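debug: dumping io for the single-chain case to check the tokenizer round-trip. Nothing else runs in this session.
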Amino acid sequence: MGRKSKIAALAVLLLLAAVAAGAYLYDRSQQGKIADGVTIDGIDVGGMDAEEAEAKVRRKLLRPLDRPLRVTYEDRTWSLLAEKLKVRADVHGAVEEAVADSREGDLPTRLGRYLGGDELALEISARLDYSRGAINEFVRQIAGEIDHQPRSASVEPGADELEVVASRPGRKLRDVRLTRQLHEAVVGAGPRTVALQVHKTKPEVTTAEVASRYPSYLTLDRGTFTLRLWKDLELAETYTVAVGQEGLETPEGLYEIQAKEENPIWYVPESDWAGDLAGQTIPPGPSNPIKARWMAIYEGAGIHGTEETSSLGSAVSHGCVRMAIPDVEALYDQVEVGTPIFIG
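debug: decoded output
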């Protein structure tokens, strides 16, 4: 080999050595850097050193989670504070992992990443965690304030009126949906304020249906000796009656027609007022004061016909409701066993 050839070969060797040394030094300078294409929970940290990456991830990932979660419904708002959620994430560990993964491979591979634009396309998790129990408790609290059972329409009777209490639909929080939305809000996949949704539940009996539940209804005003028949909750007939005397009052309260009988037998009660008849059974006929019809109400008291029409409009009976015979016959055909009767 000639002198010139030797010099040329040496120059090449020196150049290669310089390139290798430069590559080595450059590689060493990138030791703390994260390669392009690396993200931590969706946050791009490529090209950053560990300190820069950690600051960015904390700012982008954790700082928004310091704000409370809010749930709204109509004009109401509930808040779940961040301290109750106990949000935590291993940001430092995720950044260390990103740096370590960026350094994997041999020198040419690393140089290709740093100089040649060979992105890693690597997603790393900071292992975000929080108290799921706090969210469950929060949802239960809201449900306790939102949920209510439907109310069926009903009838509030008085001595001379029937008042319909309107039905009300129920409301049930869509708790599974709300829980999912709150979890999404914590991990950044949803808004921090959530509008809750509810199911409406129908009452068993609506206001429009309640009248059909009461084809007949009776009210008795003992003060005015007036028995009223209501059909589909509308006043149909008014009767003047006799009621129980002092000490043997017709019982007050809400009852129902327990039994019906035409030309009834009188089973005389074992009471002092019955005298010698106490305990006897009196068949239909002149000696039986219970005429034409019998509608049992409560413990021996009932509605029946009487021939003593002069007693109507007064408190003279032994607890029963007396009616004129034509009236009791007409009433008998319009009520069924189970018909409510309110005595006031």
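debug: round-trip ok. The first strand starts at residue 38 and ends at 40.
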